[in-house]
Amino acid sequence: MAYSRLRRSSDQRKALLRDLVTDLILNGKIETTLAKAKELKRLADKMVTLGKANTLASRRQAAEFIRFEKDEEGKFAIQKLFSEIAPKFANRNGGYTRVIKTGFRRGDAAPLAIIEWVE
């Protein structure tokens, strides 16, 4: 399976992607660079697939990856994934997120994108 290294070591890359997946679950939308958004799309779709399975094993697999953080209402990210996000996609077979290109960052001209859940 090919993936983008994002110019980071493996531990830094894993930490970055864990943070991004958690933030996407909590906020519903993130603005980041295009390369990070494309990598995040793969992982976010995998988390929703685990959420749709809704077994103890899938909860544990998701909990290994998602950070232990709360949203404004006090719900943990893992709870929100399994109770709100995954049921919304119950009759959809993949393609749970969309990446929208938004332009270029001012400082280094990196391509920017917004990643969000599909409604």
UniProtKB/TrEMBL annotation:
Q: Which domain of life is it from?
A: Bacteria
Any single GO molecular-function term of the entry would be: structural constituent of ribosome
A Pfam short name: Ribosomal_L17
Biological process (GO) annotations?
translation
Q: Which UniProt keywords apply?
A: Ribonucleoprotein, Ribosomal protein
Give GO cellular component annotations, separated by semicolons.
cytosolic large ribosomal subunit
Record keyword Transport present = no
What InterPro entries does UniProt report for this protein, alphabetically? Ribosomal_bL17 (IPR000456), Ribosomal_bL17_CS (IPR047859), Ribosomal_bL17_sf (IPR036373)
Quaternary organization:
Part of the 50S ribosomal subunit. Contacts protein L32.
The family this protein is said to belong to = Belongs to the bacterial ribosomal protein bL17 family.
What name is this protein filed under?
A: Large ribosomal subunit protein bL17
Q: What organism is the protein native to?
A: Anaeroplasma bactoclasticum
